Amino acid sequence: METVLSGIRPTGNLHLGNYFGALRNFIDMQNEHNCFFFIADYHSLTTHPTPHDLHGNVRQILVEYLAAGLDPEKSTLYVQSDVPEVIELYLFLNMNAYVGELERCTSFKDKIRQQPENVNAGLLTYPTLMAADILIHRATKVPVGKDQEQHLEMARTFGNRFNRLYNCNYFPEPQAFNFGKELIKIPGLNGSGKMGKSEGEGNAIFLADEPEAIRKKVMKAVTDAGPTVPNQAKPEAIQNIFQLMRVVSAPETLSYFEEQYNSCHIRYGDMKKQLAQDMIAFTEPIRERIKAISADEAYVSRAARIGREKARESASKTIREVREIIGFKSF
Ligand code: TRP
């Protein structure tokens, strides 16, 4: 059994890309591993120092995680800021994190370009905070996308450095976790690239979207004038709507439209109507649970409390041991 950990910044509702990319796998993993899933609200301050509704954003992700099937009894589902031990480890790790290596981090260089008016120390030490998230539970597996691999590498560096400096073998090396299930790439609706909230209005289908909103977005999805030669290769925008259909529709539906495409009879309007209907049906159980859980304040706060208690139990053990290793003693 591995200790698995994953964090998500509370910057928007979850969409189908999140669901097929990671969430679906998290739900299976809960039965096999010791899982920690948390909402990285401290991290969000590095880019959004004065959030409009921090609590609401965190709550929404928590509700959606619960609705999708993360189980607060099986896993440790918590909010980063509920675990102040993380900050103490962040401080210890920062003492041995070098400015040069932090400045060379790709994500820091990107951020300097994106927000030149706010190059704060939190941005520079973003990787130390992330390492603290991982090391505080001595996690061994971290499911991350390509964009987070360098951060994970730094977590290994900081953990190994700690072990070397204090002459111990305390932190295990966290490795990237590759899901057993193949990763399904979910394209967006605007013709190119993957589904994402920052890829433009209407590109993503959110788990909480109402049927009417789904229908509108799908009907606006980018297509083209249609094939003119039988069995013609599909351009990206068309591949995308077929890929979306592959994940939410019945196989017969997909093959029906494949045939229509190959024989040049396809009517994208009909295809999109069908796709919208199947997406609405697919997301319905999650959407209904989001509404029910969101309305149940007692359930949400109970879930958060269970998560906080389990996370703090694990984190305070680490902090106790780390203090002892470094040499802090109480009088
Ligand atoms: N940096 C991650 C992201 O932007 C979020 C995150 C914070 C995280 N702490 C983590 C991910 C620890 C995995 C482990 O997506």
Give the gist of this structure.
The protein has 331 residues and is mostly helical. The chain is built from 14 helices and five strands. The model has no long low-confidence stretch (mean pLDDT 96).
Structure description:
The protein is mostly helical. It has two domains: 3-184 and 297-326, HUPs (Rossmann fold, 3-Layer(aba) Sandwich), CATH 3.40.50; 197-291, Orthogonal Bundle (Tyrosyl-Transfer RNA Synthetase). The protein has 14 helices and five strands. α4 (85-95) packs across α8 (126-135). The mean pLDDT is 96. The structure holds tryptophan. The site of tryptophan has 13 residues, from β1 and α8.
Q: State the CATH superfamily name of the largest domain.
A: HUPs
DSSP helix fraction: 40-55%
Order of helices and strands: EHEHHEHHHHHEHEHHHHH
Determine the structural class based on helices, strands and strand pairing: mainly alpha
Our count of domains comes out at 2
CATH architecture of the largest domain: 3-Layer(aba) Sandwich
Structural features:
5 strands, two-stranded parallel sheet, 331 residues, 2 domains, mainly alpha, Rossmann fold
